[in-house]
Amino acid sequence: MNANEPGSLSAVMLNCTLSPSPADSSTDVLGRQVLDSLAEHGVSGSQVRVVDRDVRPGVELDMGEGDEWPAIREQIMDSDILILATPTWMGQQSSVAQRVFERLDAELSETDDEGRLLTFGKVAVVVVVGNEDGAHHISAVAYQCLNDVGFTIPAQGVTYWNGEAMHTVDYKELEQVPEGTASATATLAANAAHLARLLRRDGYPAA
């Protein structure tokens, strides 16, 4: 499906790495693999490396002069699928991802004419990488945050990679994608695209 055809879908990936561009990022590698897999289902995609942008702390739509969150939010609102991609540090999502969650809190006050949150027709999925444990905890936190502000999570809506305990190999250094991660990425993409099309065709009822 061509991205410009009626009914086509789009996705935006918020890369919450702590590494500013142009540094290599394992989060970028797995996140782009998700975008590539979504493309196989007719979903066009783009990426925002959030650490490169001046996203101010706060829980408002716009935190004032210089705040770049409103432009990122516009990309989210123009997309059908949000990919929240984060590295693992000390078993937790990155501080950049946490700031994204905090800024998304403002969506709780934004509704359409029928009382529905503006995010109600949008799907969200999660990407987690790290050479330490934490993916299940992080995805649980992300699911709650994203669902709470109106996004819908598809079945098996996370793909992740955890490196071997007490070792220092990063995902970006792997010579090939582990079978488990590749399978999770494929399932995530198929289910996210399927759900996004269902929501576009038959959205949630009025509040």
UniProtKB/TrEMBL annotation:
It comes from the Bacteria. Residues 21-154 form the NADPH-dependent FMN reductase-like domain. InterPro entries: Flavoprotein-like_sf, FMN_Rdtase-like_dom. Pfam families: FMN_red. This is Flavodoxin family protein. It comes from Occultella glacieicola.
